[in-house]
Amino acid sequence: MRRIWKCCNDMVFKGVSANPMEMINIEAINGGVVFGGTTCFAGQQVRWKRPAFGEGYGWVLRDFAGLLQAAGGEGGLIFNNPMMVEVAAVRAALQVCLELGCIEVGVESDSQTVIRMANREYVIDATLECFFHDIRFLASQLGRVTFACVKRHGNAAAHAIALYVTSHGGAFR
User: Fold this and answer.
1) Closest Cα partner for 109 from 66, 63, 57, 69?
2) How confident is the model at residue 58, as a pLDDT?
3) Which residues belong to the signal peptide in this entry (predicted)?
4) Is the separation of the CB atoms in 146 and 163 below 8 Å?
5) Under a CB-based contact definition with an 8 Å cutoff, are residues 39 and 26 in contact?
6) CB neighbours (10 Å) of residue 109?
7) Which tens digits make up the pLDDT trace of 79-100?
8) Beta strand pairing status for 170-172 and 144-149?
9) Which residue has the higher pLDDT, 21 or 10?
């Protein structure tokens, strides 16, 4: 559906005309591109290539006063979508909180959709169910866990760690 929506927007706003059925067929072939070959998407030649370092995430653990207690992340991973990266970071942070014996934990993320899924305001996406199962299990082992959404600049330290581990690969804590 996203491809058809993008096709319509390209036609209306950019004047690029593409056949919607072509978009559906391309979507069916590995998410829009043919591995190892070239294909035409929205009038452009596209060749798939492996991302240089993959993706990664970072997390930061602060105390009640906002002082840094721990930080970590993992890079060189491949995820299906950005929400999966956010949820993996939440799970990793909760695992560390459990190891450190934290009692009250406040999880902050700049992904409003992930936070609403964690708070059971939205139905959990099927691709994220296993992550949320782990998160709920970890949260049940801790005393009190709250989930809150913050603006992107409020998550700058975690983004800096994610940038580092994505460019260098590996995991650290």
Assistant:
1) 57
2) 86
3) none
4) no
5) yes
6) 23
7) 888 888 899 999 999 999 999 9
8) unpaired
9) 10
Burial status of residue 131 (CB atoms within 10 A of its CB: 0-12, 13-18, 19 or more): buried
Tokens matching residue 9: 């927007």
Work out the average pLDDT over 130-151: 92
Q: pTM for the full model? A: 0.65
Scored b (16 or more CB within 10 A) or e, 72-106 reads bbbbbbebeeebbbbbbbbbbbbbbbeeeebeebe
Helix (H) or strand (E) holding 12, with range, is none
Fold of 55-172: Nucleotidyltransferase; domain 5 (3.30.420)
Three-state DSSP class for residue 119: coil
Q: Is 27 exposed, middle or buried (0-12, 13-18, 19+ CB in 10 A)?
A: middle
d(CA 4, CA 21): 8
Residue 75 backbone dihedrals phi, psi, to 5 degrees: -125, 175
Location of structure tokens 């695992």: 95
In the chain, where the domains are located: 2-47, 55-172
CB 134 within 8 A of CB 91: yes
Report d(CA 53, CA 13) in Å as an integer. 33
